[in-house]
Specification:
This protein is α+β, with helices and mostly antiparallel strands. Helix content is about 30%, strand content about 20%. β4, α2 and β5 form a beta-alpha-beta unit.
Length: about 100
């Protein structure tokens, strides 16, 4: 059985190159669901709805999660509700950014 921890670990290797941090540390991952057939659904956001790297980031997330042994399929859903703000980022990221 694929675990949420495995999915989150894989997503730590997906970077928003505009800001230079991974999507987990930025707080862009809102939810991860794994069904009994190891189909993974990731609900995530981006730092802005106009992010020029949206396609790259979502495809990279899908590929990284899909590379986990046992994963059957991956769906990455983007949402902007609620909108992202810096308070969702990890303490480390906020410290580096001076927030």
């Amino acid at each position: 059985m694929v675990t949420k921890e495995q999915v989150m670990d894989a997503l730590k290797n997906v970077y928003d190159m505009e800001v230079g941090f991974d999507v987990v540390s930025l707080g862009l991952i809102y939810d991860v669901n794994i069904d009994e057939e190891n189909n993974v659904h990731v609900l995530m956001t981006l730092t802005t709805p106009m992010c020029p790297l949206a396609g790259f980031i979502t495809e990279d997330a899908k590929n990284k999660v899909g590379s986990i042994e046992g994963v059957n399929s991956v769906n990455v859903e983007l949402t902007f509700d609620p909108p992202w703000d810096p308070s969702k980022a990890s303490d480390e990221v906020r410290t580096i950014l001076g927030i």
